Please model this.
Amino acid sequence: MIAAAGIVAAVAIWVVAAQPWQSRSAATGGRSAAMQIVGTTLDGRQFDLADYRGKPVAVNFFAEWCGPCNIEAPELAAFAKAHPEVAFVGVDTNDELAKAKGFVQKYGLSYPVVYDPQGTLGTRYEVRGIPTTFFLDANGVQRDVIVGATNRAGFEAGLASIK
Model:
């Protein structure tokens, strides 16, 4: 009984301290180098994130099989449509191609989605869980990141960090 209480207390402390669902600002988790994503989109086109320099960017890592990604996707799709001044990029990771395409169609994602079936890009950028959304300034430098599903208010807060 005492051991179980200790475990519960330790988990509670970790959750409060880590707050995995909260954003991490540039001061605590930002990178000084520009993010580089090069690959092939779900529709077979070549993609290079460097083409978006000069414009703020939101990069969302997700997968079709991820429950929180499915919860977040309608909010993200609406948010992207409401902010044409921001470039949105999806990275479908550790997924099957047909299922990834179905996810994009189901939620009406209108921005490019890079296919990362082995999770290489997620590993490079230390994605610890999905969904994860990075907010990059006009120079491609990370200014904020949200780990875990969020809502419109969360996306707005991330966007404020790059405007």
Summary: Confidence is low (pLDDT under 50) at residues 3-30. Residues 2-18 form the longest helix (17 residues). The helical segments are 2-18, 26-29, 67-82, 97-107, 120-124, 152-160. The chain has one domain: 21-160.
